[in-house]
Design brief:
99 residues, two-stranded parallel ribbon, 4 helices
């Protein structure tokens, strides 16, 4: 959590938007509990049970994560400067996320 907050500080972001999938859901919740004043919006998707196997993941969960991510990118692009990843267009916003 401290590493994530250091990244936020290095990027000079007061409140961040967070998308967490799989293990990132645990990290996101822990961050939210510890630093609620630094979170604007948060999406948590596809938390995995310890006994999930890779076949179930790639055929069921991964496509759902991708769909949710695309919704996040759409909303980020639509919200303009309210989203820390916004770069002027949906394509540029997606590229910022990927980088």
């Amino acid at each position: 959590m401290k590493d994530l907050d250091e990244i936020r500080r290095a990027l000079k972001i007061d409140k961040m938007d967070y998308f967490g999938g799989s293990y990132g859901t645990r990290l996101g919740l822990a961050y939210l509990v510890t630093y609620p004043e630094h979170v604007d919006r948060m999406i948590l998707d596809a938390n995995l049970a310890p006994n999930n196997n890779s076949t179930e993941y790639f055929t069921g969960i991964a496509p759902a994560i991708e769909t949710t991510l695309q919704h996040f990118i759409d909303q980020c692009a639509e919200s303009g400067n309210k989203c820390a990843l916004y770069r002027g267009s949906k394509k540029e916003t997606q590229s910022a996320f990927e980088n």
